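FAQ

Q: What does a record look like?
A: Structure on top, sequence underneath. For example:
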């Protein structure tokens, strides 16, 4: 059994689509009136981006503490490359530069209130 998709909730669907297309390797499948979009990466994993407006709310959605999505990089150099690529992105905020976190190396950033982790896979060597 494979994980098929994840559904994230954001206030600004178009900004999320642009971020994940430009920097995280996702391709847009459908964008329904900037209220809901479906994207897919090269590993046949889909991300459903659900607009908070569909929840009949206008504010930026809150996530439970420590909820996040993570993207593995091949090694520390790849983590640094990703950080350099996105560190000045106007829709992201950062906790710190890449560093040792738990049993790996990486960093956290936020799109709205969604935490995104970029790190080296601590369980396998040289996995992308």
């Amino acid at each position: 059994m494979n994980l098929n998709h994840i559904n994230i909730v954001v206030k600004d669907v178009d900004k999320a689509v642009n971020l994940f297309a430009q920097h995280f390797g996702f391709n847009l499948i459908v964008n329904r009136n900037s209220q809901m979009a479906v994207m897919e990466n090269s590993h046949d994993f889909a991300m459903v981006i659900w607009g908070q407006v569909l929840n009949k709310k206008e504010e930026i959605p809150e996530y439970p503490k420590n909820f996040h999505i993570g993207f593995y990089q091949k090694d520390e150099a790849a983590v640094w490359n990703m950080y350099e690529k996105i560190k000045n992105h106007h829709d992201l905020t950062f906790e710190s530069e890449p560093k040792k976190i738990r049993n790996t190396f990486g960093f956290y950033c936020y799109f709205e209130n969604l935490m995104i982790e970029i790190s080296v896979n601590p369980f396998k060597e040289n996995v992308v």
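Q: Is there anything notable about this one?
A: Strands lie at 5-10, 27-32, 36-40, 46-51, 68-73, 92-94, 99-101, 104-111, 114-120.
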